[in-house]
TrEMBL record:
Gene: LOC109867271
Domain Fibrinogen C-terminal residue range list: 586-638
Residue span(s) of domain EGF-like: 550-587, 961-999
Major localization listed first in the record, in broad terms: membrane
Subcellular compartments: Membrane
Name of the featured protein: Contactin-associated protein-like 5
Sequence ranges assigned to domain Laminin G in this UniProt record: 182-362, 369-548, 795-960, 1022-1176
Length: 1275
């Protein structure tokens, strides 16, 4: 073995080969290729490899070419460690296999450490920890690090290797020297930087530093001024909080100071960088790689700080060593305040720096963590060393995100008694099992799965077992006899009885612990986990030593539109409640994009929430949809709809009214842009009040458009023409003027007109300036904004050459993309759209006459989702496609076929990086192009104008031939337009309406003894995506949705309208209460009281027709035909049977009442009693129809964890109570996720063209019963 000095001579080698020089220009500074000082092969064979050949044999492409590292085959968890002898800045790494062998590493982790004891895993962009390695022994694979590593030690941990060989590795790292000014703070120390003058006033500040902390709390920086300014940077619960205020004394003396927080898990004893940049009120806060932009509070632009800035704590004036807040405990390096090196001044003892108990080298605590990797099989077994005083004590620290997990278990000396310490529902619970059936429990803590370190102590003494968590009071269990712990203590999980030394596993009473532990001591003896790692102490499985692998998956927050992020160890979840959006990342709006879309779903006039840009950044807004005419009008009101009288205004002091609409300016702009036409009426009456100066024609009054531009035309005239409607119609009272008001008469004149140039609408402001003369006045009223049509619905292009395509700018869809469109074709295959990157891509295509595929690659391997139709899709009819990909999952929907889902890998690449143009109807290679029609192409809420681009593209024409391709709605209420050679027909089979255009209501009157039972067979067999191209890291599943709609008329209450019940006594019920008001009952948790929602207090038992629509979209609902157990009030509502009328009943794509009338001979329909067709729905529509839509965001917990995919069948019967009662009966076959299920929202949404029949897994020959029976007592 050579001496250390010999190894030091070989520490840094300047390579002259291409391997290093190729990188000199890339890394941006003079770089050296760093060699190896030491290398540890395996913890179980820790030995020095400082032989003369050791440094050379691990380098890439040396002249000798020989060597490489390979651990012994018997080594568990081998790794290769590099000591750079000092902290260096590493910017790249490269690997090769073992020279002249079949040994190489195909995937590895990279860890780094300052001490060689506590390690941290390096994560690339997107949080990916895995590095792609080699595919042979000789090739070199380089990785430029997205952010450099400043560390002394590096560790390469092989994950995968050549299956036909073994682990073989040669490495090279690239970097340069790193200089650091370090200060160590012991929790009682601080640095004070005193200004040369009394106060320091700045309009621009730049503060930068790096720190590593031993605790989750502590002040890093503080300064304040007498007028109320302050700046404070502190750690709070492992996150960095910045308090900044400029000249606002109210905030200084209030307790409501608001912090901007960033970062997470910053108490991990590893370095983190901070940068604060401020100019006036604009501030950028950067922590590591995350930046937040914000605007400060206060009235000033400068930060005034008196006397000094303190670092590491907030000292109390006049009392040295006394601090107002908890001090920082850890190290700070390279601390710069506006270009001043604070630590360098302190080291040189400059007079403006006061350093209290600060040292200038970073002490290294010996806090080494261990990570429990698996929630099913991880465990650590340690011997229970005897205690001299009897009993036992165990103490350790843990941190995790999981709400459940077994922390510790031991068999007690008196069998079969045992103790178990576990996290249960985010609390710490100690259980003493006295026998197989008896146990005692105590609990403590709250949200112990918050990712922070928690200290737990467990001790047995004097017939008591005591549990203590952090600083909370102890909890105690009384024992009948004195007892000791068994021979072994099991941490994180339990070893099964049938294990051997070579076969270790973990039984799973709940879940094994998944998280980090450290500072384990048994009977006051610290446990050396290095000995465990080397096989000298205890047993273990699925552990990672020397590091805490916790990772904050909510940073950054991938939940869109304000969704709340929560997480477990392996994944994150989004709570979309109250956002108006749904989906795994709250990406999809639950509302339609326009009133036209609501009409296509069968809705009637009323107030609706529309989301003009769908999944885009704009939220939903409420509008009135007027559907009484052929055109569907969208009406948006503002704050001043009544007539307003104006007097006393001049051009110098005009009257000004600004209009605030019920939608934001951005929403209005999107609404107007997406409409075919918009208009706004301006009612303007005047007396001796002119609109234009009669001498020079300059305007005396005007209005302001949506862009803030002044407009002087009144009425439908073209922009720029200063005229009114009377001039257009040639009926002005004085033809010498272009406006009636300009005649300036003593009598009232009228210049009312309709503004119809939609690019200028709506009117945002009106200015009136000529009402100050005697007898002069004006009266105006600005009507609501009214728009009709949806330009996107029928925006189409026809492709008639295979090599033709439309091209658009690169798709901006790094983190999420939803793509929807309609197509019709007669060809068997073709690519709908494609966008490419260097390696990434996204593509949607018709791969065969009955299969649509959605494929993409974000760096985790190619993924293919396929939906197969039971009928050909090249039938010259319109078909709907919707594909979505986000960081959580991917999905594909075709017409009403089952929705296909694939879950994304929890630690894979997230960003879809594209750089080519978006090709629609073809590919960049001009092969496999689509021939047919595509319309309504929408991506991420943006509609693509296919018609405009088609006009300038050869091989493509604007629009699409055929009767079913126009903007006129030929088929209503979800009816489907079918092309024929000489015309068209409307397919009303999936509509609750009938007639040639699916507009005629189907109504039925029942008496008490009447009933209808409809049984239908699902047309879809089991269809799984078995494509071999689908990446294994994705997991397939399906999703469930239902839409139910019906109309009813009654005069009696209470009554049940709808109920969905489960075998576990959960239910959703829609009833009329005793006073006739509508109530929606949710009992989604058996052990909780039901939640009751009343959307309207008015009575619906008024003898008029009411339409009800309910949409459910959730992950798990288990349903059964029998065993309903409802609350008393719901039962009373269902027991009041009476005669009435039921109309237009729709369950997904089934209309049971219509089937009962038209198919009485069918085996699917059975009728009991006297059934009479009625026209109550038509009669009600001829008078007044009262639509009622209930929006309800409701959480549905699904916390059961499943470890295997399962198909669960349950039958739900839906009983339609004539007059008031409709109980919908459903069959659901649910795909059960392998991960723990999260909250599901129950929201009202009318989904375009009945695309809600998405089942988690379709089972062939499945029957669903839907019953319509009369309610009677004793039910």
């Amino acid at each position: 073995t050579v001496s250390e000095s010999q190894c030091t001579l070989r520490k840094i080698i300047f390579l002259t080969g291409d391997s290093c020089l190729d990188y000199l220009s890339v890394w941006g500074c003079v770089r050296v290729c760093l060699s190896i000082y030491s290398c540890c092969v395996t913890p179980s064979h820790a030995r020095s490899l400082f032989a003369p050949s050791c440094p050379e044999m691990f380098f890439l492409s040396l002249v000798s070419g020989a060597g490489g590292w390979s651990p012994q085959v018997t080594d568990r968890q081998p790794w290769l460690q590099l000591d750079l002898r000092d902290r260096m800045e590493v910017t790249a790494v490269a690997t090769q296999g073992h020279y002249g062998s079949s040994d190489w590493v195909s995937g590895y982790l990279l860890l780094f450490s300052d001490t060689g004891l506590a390690w941290k895993q390096y994560r690339q962009e997107d949080g990916v920890g895995r590095f792609v390695g080699n595919v042979n022994a000789d090739g070199v694979v380089h990785h430029k690090l997205s952010h450099s590593i400043r560390s002394r030690f590096l560790r390469f941990v092989p994950l995968d290797w050549n299956p036909s060989g073994w682990v073989g590795l040669r490495v090279e790292v690239y970097g340069c020297a790193y200089k650091s000014y370090v200060a160590d703070f012991d929790g009682r120390s601080s640095l004070l930087y005193r200004f040369n003058q009394k106060s320091m006033s700045t309009v621009k500040d730049v503060i930068s530093l790096r720190f590593k902390s031993r605790q989750a709390e502590g002040v890093l920086l503080h300064g304040e001024g007498q007028r109320g300014d302050y700046i404070t940077l502190e750690l709070h619960r492992g996150r960095l909080a910045l308090y900044l205020n400029l000249d606002d004394t109210r905030l200084r003396f209030s307790s409501g100071r608001v912090a901007v927080t960033l970062g997470s898990l910053l108490d991990d004893q590893h370095w983190h960088s901070v940068l604060i940049e401020r100019f006036n009120k604009q501030v950028n806060l950067t922590v590591d790689t995350h930046t937040q932009h914000f605007r400060t509070k206060g009235e000033g632009d400068s930060l005034d700080v008196d006397y000094e800035l303190s670092f590491g704590g907030i000292p109390l004036p006049g009392k040295p060593g006394t601090f107002l807040r908890k001090n920082f405990h850890g190290c700070i390096e390279n601390l710069y305040y506006n270009g001043i090196n604070i630590i360098d001044l302190a080291k040189r003892r400059k007079p403006q720096i006061y350093s209290g108990n600060v040292t200038f080298s970073c002490s290294q605590p010996q806090l080494v963590s261990t990570t429990f990797l698996s929630s099913s099989s991880s465990f650590l077994s340690l011997p229970a060393t005897p205690s001299a005083s009897g009993g036992f004590t165990v103490r350790f620290q843990f941190r995790t995100w999981n709400p459940d997990g077994l922390l510790l278990s031991t068999q007690l000396s008196l069998e079969p008694q045992r103790l178990e310490l576990q996290i249960s529902n985010s609390r710490l619970r100690l259980t003493h099992h006295t026998s197989a059936q008896q146990k005692e429990e105590v609990s403590t803590g709250h949200r112990v799965n918050d990712g922070l370190w928690h200290t737990v102590s467990l001790g047995s003494r004097s017939l008591q077992v005591t549990m203590t968590l952090d600083n909370e009071p102890s909890s105690t269990i009384e024992l009948a006899d004195h007892m000791d712990a068994g021979d072994n203590l099991y941490f994180g999980g339990k070893r099964t009885d049938n294990m051997t030394n070579t076969s270790l596993g973990c039984e799973n009473p709940t879940l094994a612990f998944q998280g980090c532990m450290r500072l384990i001591s048994i009977n006051s003896q610290p446990m050396d986990l290095n000995q465990v790692q080397q096989g000298r102490l205890g047993k273990y499985k699925e552990l990672q030593f020397d590091t805490c692998g916790i990772h904050d998956r909510c940073l950054p927050n991938f939940c869109e539109h304000g969704g709340q992020c929560s997480q477990s160890w392996n994944t994150f979840y989004c709570d979309c409640s109250g956002t108006g959006y749904a989906g795994a990342t709250c990406h999809n709006s639950i509302y339609e994009a326009s009133c036209e879309a609501y009409r296509l779903t069968g809705s009637s006039s009323g107030y609706f929430s529309i989301d003009p840009d769908g999944s885009g950044p704009l939220g939903a807004t409420q509008v009135f949809c007027n559907m009484t005419e052929d055109k569907v009008w969208t009406v948006v009101t503002h704050n001043s709809t009544d007539p307003v009288r104006v007097q006393g205004s001049t051009l110098q002091k005009p009257y000004v009214m600004k209009f605030n609409y019920s939608a934001s300016p951005e929403q209005l702009m999107a609404l107007v842009a997406g409409s075919e036409q918009c208009q706004q009426e301006v009612v303007y009456s005047c007396r001796k009040s002119r609109l234009f100066n009669t001498w020079d024609g300059s305007p005396l009054s005007w209005w302001v458009d949506q862009g803030g531009e002044r407009r002087t035309y009144w009425g439908g005239f073209l922009p720029g023409v200063q005229q009114c409607s009377c001039s257009l119609e040639e009926n002005c009272m004085d033809m010498n003027y272009f406006c009636n008001c300009d005649a300036d008469t003593d009598s009232w004149a009228n210049d009312t007109g309709v503004l119809s140039y939609k690019e200028h609408l709506p009117v945002s402001e009106i200015v009136i300036g000529d009402t100050n003369r005697t007898g002069s006045e004006a009266l105006y009223r600005i009507g609501p904004l009214r728009c009709y049509g949806d330009k996107s619905v029928w925006n189409a292009a026809s492709f008639y050459q295979e090599s033709s395509y439309l091209h658009f700018p690169t798709l901006q869809a790094e983190l999420s993309a939803d793509i929807s469109f309609y197509f019709k074709t007669s060809v068997p295959s073709g690519v709908f759209l494609e966008d490419l990157g260097l390696k990434d891509f996204i593509r949607v295509e018709l791969s065969s006459p009955s299969v649509v595929t959605f494929s993409f690659d974000v760096g985790n391997g190619g993924v293919v989702l396929a939906v197969k139709s039971h009928v050909p899709l090249n039938d010259r009819q319109w078909h709907y496609v919707r594909a979505e990909r986000n960081v959580k999952e991917a999905s594909l929907q075709v017409d009403q076929l089952p929705l296909r889902f694939l879950e994304a890998p929890s630690d894979g690449h997230l960003r879809l990086r594209l750089n080519s143009q978006l090709f629609v109807g073809g590919t960049a290679a001009r092969q496999r192009g689509f021939m047919g029609c595509i319309r309504t192409l929408n991506i991420n809420g943006m509609t693509f104008n296919l018609e405009e681009r088609a006009k300038m593209t050869p091989g493509v024409s604007a629009g699409c031939p055929g009767h079913c391709s126009g903007s006129s709605s030929l088929c209503h209420n979800r009816g489907r337009c079918i092309e024929k050679n000489s015309g068209y027909v409307c397919d009303c089979s999936q509509s609750a309406y009938g007639g040639p255009s699916c507009k005629e209501e189907v109504s039925v009157s029942f008496d008490r003894e009447s009933s209808v039972t409809y049984t239908f067979q699902e047309p879809f067999s089991v269809m799984q995506n078995r494509s071999s191209q689908a990446s294994r890291v994705y997991r397939e599943s399906t999703r469930a949705r239902e839409n139910m709609a019906f109309s009813f008329m009654t005069t009696q209450s209470p009554a049940m309208l709808l109920t969905v019940s489960t075998f576990s006594q959960q239910y959703i019920a829609v009833i009329l209460a005793l006073n006739g008001s509508l109530q929606i009952w949710y009992r989604l948790h058996v052990y909780r009281k039901p939640d009751v929602f009343s959307p309207s207090p008015s009575s619906l038992a008024d003898g008029r027709l009411h339409r009800i629509r309910i949409h459910r979209q959730g992950k798990d609902v288990y349903l059964q035909v029998r065993g309903e157990n409802f609350d008393e009030e719901v039962m009373q509502a269902g027991s009041k049977g009476f005669i009435g009328c039921l109309s237009s009943v729709q369950f997904n794509h089934v209309a049971p009442l219509k089937a009962a009338l038209l198919n009485r001979g069918s085996s699917l329909v059975s009728v009991r009693g006297h059934l009479v067709e009625s026209n109550c729905g038509v009669l009600a529509d001829s008078t007044t129809s009262h639509p009622l839509s209930a929006n309800k965001d409701k959480e549905q917990q699904g916390n059961d964890t499943r470890h295997d995919s399962a198909v669960i069948g349950g039958v739900v019967t839906a009983v339609v109570f004539i007059t008031l009662c409709v109980v919908v009966v459903m069959t659901r076959f649910l795909y059960q996720h392998r991960q723990a299920q999260r909250d599901a929202s129950i929201k009202e949404k009318e989904h375009r063209h009945n695309l809600e029949t998405a089942y988690r897994r379709e089972v062939s020959n499945t029957h669903v019963g839907l019953h319509c029976i009369a309610a009677r007592k004793g039910m």
